[in-house]
Design a protein that fits this description.
heterodimer, A: VC0802-like, 2 domains, seven-stranded antiparallel sheet, 31% helix, B: alpha/beta, Rossmann fold, four-stranded antiparallel sheet, 25% strand
């Protein structure tokens, strides 16, 4: 299952300096890479920008060439209904089965559905996919984010 | 006697050779260089007072400032007609220091460089890629002529053009690399970025690294990354250039004692310290004609060892240079060498070996920051992991160096990449007239 559902997320290290976020955005824009979802975790001195894009290889190559520390991480995506309780159902399954969520983010798309991204420990990745699938959650194929 | 046998001379024979040469050097310096005559006269010492090697410690020191004060040729003991080569320091901190060589001096230099190369049994089949800078700096030509004398094929690559150097190293099948340790690391990093496999695409078996202090961890990283024997090459242009000392397969940095006598002194009092104690290295040349150096204060911090080395060499060895007395930082009263910081960083996963130490004043106290580049491998986890990494580095610095440093994680390649000697310290205290 992993091959089909592992979404290649790009993580970029950013110092808290004016203009660094814009530099990332410009680099991706010039390379015509489309950002599908993003999430910025920050401390007082630096941040890590997480990106799901339509072309992860290209995004990573472009960012590395610009001198950013960028790496690829597997996350998975679950589609839920865009209404109260949608997020809870998924997190409940993971929690009840003892799978830790390292971080998560989401976007609400069109037509009443939302996409949730999850990063779990690598050793639990396959089990998480199996569990969610068996309990009737709708996993989103990685290919849907790429073009 | 073959060149290699000189490293294995019986001690008594070596010491009587040293004494004979020391007397000659002192005589020549006294009679041919007004500077030395004046210094000796002031100290009330005559060349004939030197009767044993023990008497060396009665002679006055020579410093870099003496070379500057006598710029450019004032300390030469021969007329310029006999000088066939002149090298010079970059002079970034004042007048450059100028050194000269007679034809005999160049042959001494070549000899000690050959003996350096023999630490890894370099021979005529080797292809020596020499990435030390060619020019006024002694590194390039020193390593060049030594390798040529052995009959190896020398590639005079000089500095810079990293990617082209890698291409030549691979295509020519270089077996020996000569450069600064930080450039060796830089070459490895760029090679990996370019998609090379360091051990399969290259045929390197040994490297001769010097011109800057390197921590044990940096040496191990360079040796492991390239899969090579790491030979430390120590020297300084005032004495001869590279070729003063080189490390054997056991990692002991042997001084070519038949040409240079090492002493270790207390940098404050000038007293000679017993073997095994750490202090400033002082060197006296025994065979140099153009620029004899008597008790030259190197400012390099090390320890002398006279116990036998498993390699069988009878010449003594010193410990890897811990730092230049010049590079030593005093932070709130604690001595800090950049190589110690480097050693701590190299042991911690998640950061690259590139760092800069920034010292500033905060009120009356010194404030120390260590900037380290993050490694891409650590971005998979959350911000918490990076914060823990920061704290871990801070703890390690406190536990190992007894300093309170603030660690700052920075983006890769933001720190000035070293193409030659690495710049590791930014001291902002002087700028504000703090001291």
């Amino acid at each position: 299952m992993r091959g089909k559902f592992a979404v290649k997320q790009i993580s970029v290290f950013l110092e808290n300096r004016r203009g660094r976020l814009a530099d990332v955005a410009r680099a991706l824009s010039e390379a015509e890479v489309n950002i599908r979802a993003l999430f910025l975790a920050d401390s007082s001195e630096f941040g890590i920008l997480r990106l799901v894009v339509n072309n992860p290889e290209k995004a990573r190559a472009v960012l590395s060439a610009e001198g950013f520390a960028a790496s690829e991480t597997d996350v998975f995506a679950v589609e839920v209904e865009d209404r109260p309780g949608g997020f809870y159902k998924v997190v409940k399954t993971l929690s009840e089965n003892g799978i830790d969520v390292e971080y998560t983010y989401a976007f609400a798309g069109a037509s009443n559905r939302a996409i949730l991204f999850f990063k779990v420990p690598d050793s639990e990745f396959d089990r998480a996919l199996e569990l969610l699938s068996n309990e009737g959650h709708k996993l989103v194929e990685a290919a849907e984010f790429y073009t | 006697m073959s060149l290699k046998e000189k490293d294995y001379m019986p001690r008594e024979e070596l010491q009587s050779l040293q004494l004979k040469r020391l007397k000659e050097t002192v005589e020549r310096a006294y009679h041919l260089v007004p500077f030395y005559r004046k210094k000796f006269d002031e100290a009330g010492i005559k060349p004939s007072d030197v009767k044993s090697l023990e008497d060396l410690k009665r002679l006055p020191f020579t410093t870099k400032q003496d070379l500057r004060d006598n710029y450019p040729f004032g300390l030469f003991a021969v007329p310029l007609e006999q000088v066939v080569r002149i090298h010079s320091s970059s002079g970034t901190t004042g007048k450059p220091t100028v050194v000269g060589y007679t034809r005999h001096d160049l042959s001494v230099w070549t000899e000690v460089m050959v003996r350096t190369y023999l630490m890894a049994d370099v021979n005529e089949k080797d292809i020596v890629h020499n990435a030390y800078g060619y020019g006024l700096f002694t590194g390039g030509l020193g390593f060049h002529y030594g390798a040529e004398a052995i009959g190896a094929s020398v590639v005079p690559a000089s500095g810079g053009f990293t990617k082209r150097q890698l291409m030549l190293m691979k295509d020519f099948g270089a077996t020996v690399l000569c450069c600064t340790p930080s450039f060796a690391l830089h070459l490895a990093e760029v090679a990996k970025e370019e998609g090379y496999n360091l051990k399969e695409d290259f045929r390197l078996r040994a490297g001769f690294f010097g011109a800057e202090p390197a921590s044990k961890a940096l040496k191990e990283t360079v040796a492991e990354e390239w899969g090579i024997q790491y030979v430390e090459a120590y020297g300084l242009s005032e004495i001869i250039g590279p070729g003063v000392a080189a490390s054997c397969k056991h990692g002991n940095l042997h001084v070519f004692e038949d040409h240079f006598i090492p002493e270790v002194i207390d940098p404050e009092t000038g007293e000679v310290l017993p073997d095994g104690e750490e202090g400033e290295l002082v060197l006296t040349t025994l065979t140099k004609q153009a620029l004899p150096m008597i008790r030259y204060r190197t400012k390099d911090i090390t320890v002398i060892h006279r116990e036998p080395c498993p390699c069988g060499r009878t010449i003594l060895y010193i410990e890897s240079i811990k730092g230049r007395a010049d590079d030593m930082l005093i932070v709130n009263g604690v001595n800090v060498f950049p190589s110690q910081v480097e050693h701590v960083i190299a042991k911690v996963e998640g950061v690259t070996p590139n760092y800069v130490i920034v010292v500033d004043k905060k009120g009356v106290l010194d404030k120390l920051e260590v900037w380290v580049e993050v490694d891409e491998s650590i971005l998979k986890d959350g911000v918490g992991t990076l914060e823990r990494l920061q704290r871990k580095l801070e703890e390690e610095l406190l536990n190992n160096l007894y300093i309170n440093a603030k660690v700052k994680l920075v983006e890769p390649k933001t720190l000035e990449r070293s193409m030659g000697k690495a710049k590791r310290i930014v001291d902002r205290r002087q700028l504000e007239g703090g001291r």
